[in-house]
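[stage:ingest] chain + small molecule (zinc ion)
[stage:ingest] validated
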Amino acid sequence: MRLRVPPFLKRLYPAAIWNFPNEADSVFLTFDDGPTPEITPWVINKLAEYDAKATFFCLGKNVEQHPEEFTLIRANGHSVGNHSYSHQRGFSMPTGSYVEDVDLADEFIRSNLFRPPYSFITPTQVRVLSERYKIIMWNVLSLDYSNKITNHQCLKQVVGSAHPGAVIVFHDSLKSAKHLKYVLPKALDFFVEKGWKMKAIEY
Ligand SMILES: [Zn+2]
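[stage:predict] done
[stage:export] tokens:
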């Protein structure tokens, strides 16, 4: 199984970043939907064991509820991005309210990186938000949230699709914890074996 980004999506969001093609020896791990007390500290410890840095696209409402875990992310040298306050679908919301939800999250997160929930927002929402945020998409999806695949299939999805410069999506959410605890250490082993560095996205 190999998931690719559909070309129409890239055309729809030309201002967005999907990967870093010039980074010949690095991969960019990203964790969406946290912080979650039950899994985020585990992820941070695991990354530390490998001297890996990552980017956490947090939900404003979760940062509001779990400020200690958010502080832990920053204290460990990872970067953070805005993943909206309440995880709405852009297509089913007027641009004004959608942007308000993102700006509300910014009060807690303070980052100029933004990743849209579900990866879908309207071209107008992209235009408005890209005036203030760098829109970071992805090009390798781990499917760690899926209950239709096994741990091993999830791992194969990550290591089979990863390449230098890739932006890989994981989730530090309860829903993804089962797959993540199996996949992350093995994926990190794989990246180290390849000689790739795991870097945070910085702007
Ligand atoms: Zn999300």
